Amino acid sequence: MCDCCYACLTLVLPWLQGLEELAVEPQVSEDRFAALAAQCQSGLERGVLAAIRDRGLPLPDEAQKTIYDGDEPLASVDFYYEPRIVVFVDGSPHHRDYVAAADERKRRRLKALGYRILAVAGDGLEEALATLEEWLDLRA
Predict the structure, then answer these.
(1) Residue 42 within a domain
(2) Total domain count for the chain?
(3) 122: confidence class by pLDDT, cuts 50, 70, 90
(4) What is the SS3 assignment for 136?
(5) Is 62 left (phi over 0), alpha (psi -120 to 50) or beta?
(6) pLDDT tens-digit readout, 91-109
(7) What's the rounded Cα separation, in Å, for the pair 73 and 75?
């Protein structure tokens, strides 16, 4: 090895080794967050979106996405992640029997089509976000 190469190694190698401990944090674009938040239909949805951001999870790919079964609209999901992860934010109207029954039918069909379904309701936010984090780690 020539003197030049040796000198470069003694200077560059410690710097490269220092990069091993470098952690890269994903940066959430506030513009993207604002665009998704503007599509939310309730304060509860905006709160869930903010909790996703605050936990450091990736923001959804879309908000208020309509999922189709062929040409038939099946469900409007609050948040959508590729590939096939849907998030429903269930506020108080979803506790009504007829709404809960319709939700169950839609979600059963979505599951049959291969979607992962996450329903966020009431005090279950932390548990739901932990599940979402696992699912998003699996897709990486």
Answers:
(1) yes
(2) 1
(3) confident
(4) helix
(5) beta
(6) 765 566 767 898 899 999 9
(7) 6
Token pair for 107: 């979600």
Q: Is residue 91 part of a domain?
A: yes
Domain that holds residue 114: 27-139
Interatomic CA distance for residues 41 and 13, integer angstroms:
53
Structure tokens given for 50: 């903010």
Alpha-carbon span 2 to 8, nearest angstrom: 10
Query: Beta strand pairing status for 72-81 and 85-90?
Result: antiparallel
Q: Is the bond into 73 cis (omega within 30 degrees of 0)?
A: no
| Structure token digits, residue 36 | 């998704």
Q: Is the pLDDT of residue 82 over 60?
A: yes
Q: What is the pTM of this model?
A: 0.76
| Region 17-38 average pLDDT | 76
* Residue 58 burial (CB count, 10 A): 15
